[in-house]
Specification:
422 residues, globular, mainly alpha, single chain
């Protein structure tokens, strides 16, 4: 790979890491800053808190995918990447310097809502922008390998947010963390995002975009649906299944270890941190396998494998009290999931022509992710509340089954890719 390509791929990957660091930092640090913005005594502030969760989790990401997907197709891949990380920088900086409720009243949580909405727009656009850029910049022979770094950096961002929080907790007591310490993480995030914004502005544009004619068809949601309804539905379905599995095996699994298996919070965090590190490092390996054997065998490995192991693995983890055993069992579905996540952005990018590729990747992904990924934890907890926890294991199996139908309908995009080698 030439130096220009390598620099571009590393630049795109670094930005993805920063994006997801900023996104996860909010979740990790909520316990510290929430009392400053949402006092229990104020009903309006509580309503704003609920509105923020709704707006960001279920509205802003698809809107971000729609707006920024079209933007990337019209103005260029690197322009879309720069806008995405720029919005994240603005959102993180707003959170870092936002006044507390005691200082500004209801204005304080309103600022937090706006900041989180900016972050939601950013993350909604980042997936399609980075998947398209990495896929178009990579050489055909190693396209899956280099595209796998999208999830390496996504998981890396989650781990970085956790690491920064642990360092802050090591140096500051709980009172200091609640008073001002949490702001440091968002200052770091804003500074990193600003640095990546400058880097992304200097990246090379992809040859695929530069080769587009000026009078090319417009990239709009309506034109995407009219021209590619089958691909749209397939991408939404496989994104829903992959996202449901991702959130079930990673985000919810930590709570499952505490609430169902009975592990302490610290032990559960240690188990999941170790599992996520292995999960992250496995991505390039499965990317290489996809370059060697094709995309479809990897996808079907996750599809049929995920359906086969979800119920027995969740059942076994629920009954274990040994941390090493729990770690080993969690790796089983995570390794199967790696067969999908390592190439999830690439297979979508390979389905669409260049003039509408960013939107084609971003919008159906965001819809599937929102409907089935964003609600996975709620569904899990609802089953548990009804004393039907095993129902969630079968739910995950069924949603992966939906994705598997999509995998079977896909062509082998290694050979039928619409990404033209430059």
């Amino acid at each position: 790979m030439d130096g220009k390509r390598l620099k571009a791929i590393l630049g795109g990957s670094a930005g993805n890491l920063v994006e997801w660091y900023d996104w996860y930092a909010y979740s990790v640090l909520t316990i510290y800053f929430a009392p400053s913005f949402f006092p229990k005594s104020d009903q309006t502030a509580q309503l704003l808190s609920a509105a923020a969760i709704f707006a960001v989790g279920f509205l802003m990401r698809p809107i971000g995918a729609w707006i920024m997907g079209s933007y990337g197709d019209r103005h260029g891949r690197k322009a879309g990447l720069a806008l995405s990380v720029g919005l994240m920088c603005a959102g993180s900086l707003m959170i870092a310097i936002a006044p507390t409720y005691a200082q500004a009243g209801v204005i304080a949580p309103a600022i937090l809502v706006i900041a989180r909405m900016l972050q939601g727009l950013s993350v909604g656009g980042e997936y399609g922008a980075s998947a398209t850029y990495l896929s178009e910049m990579a050489s055909k022979k190693r396209r899956a390998f280099w595209s796998s770094f999208q999830y390496v950096t996504l998981i890396g961002g989650q781990l970085l947010a956790l690491g920064v929080t642990l360092i802050l907790q090591g140096f500051l007591d709980e009172a200091a963390m609640g008073a001002w310490g949490w702001r440091i993480a968002f200052v770091i995030g804003a500074a990193l995002a600003l640095a990546v914004y400058v880097l992304r502005r200097r990246l090379a544009e992809t040859a695929q975009f530069e080769a587009l004619a000026k009078d090319r068809p417009k990239s709009t949601a309506l034109s995407l649906w009219r021209a590619f309804p089958r691909e749209f539905m397939i991408v939404a379905a496989i994104s829903g299944g992959g996202s449901c599995a991702f959130y079930a095996y990673t985000t919810y699994m930590q709570k499952f270890l505490v609430n169902t298996s009975g592990f302490g919070k610290q032990t559960a965090t240690e188990i999941m941190t170790a599992a996520l590190i292995v999960f992250m490092l496995s991505q390039p390996i499965f990317g290489l396998l996809a370059d060697r054997f094709g995309r479809k065998p990897m996808l079907l490995l996750f599809g049929f494998g995920g359906m086969a192991v979800s119920v027995p693995v969740f059942t076994a983890i629920a009954a274990t009290t040994d941390a090493v055993s729990a770690f080993a069992m969690i790796l089983v579905p995570l390794m199967l999931l790696s067969a999908y996540t390592s190439i999830s952005g690439l297979i979508k990018a390979e389905l669409f022509p260049a003039h509408i590729r960013t939107l084609g990747v971003a919008l159906p992904y965001a819809l599937g992710n929102t409907i089935f990924g964003g609600t996975a934890e709620y569904v899990a907890l609802k089953f548990k509340d009804l004393h039907l926890e095993a129902g969630f294991y079968w739910y995950v199996t069924a949603i992966i089954g939906m994705a598997t139908i999509g995998f079977l309908m896909l062509p082998e995009t290694k050979h039928a890719s619409l990404i033209v080698e430059d």
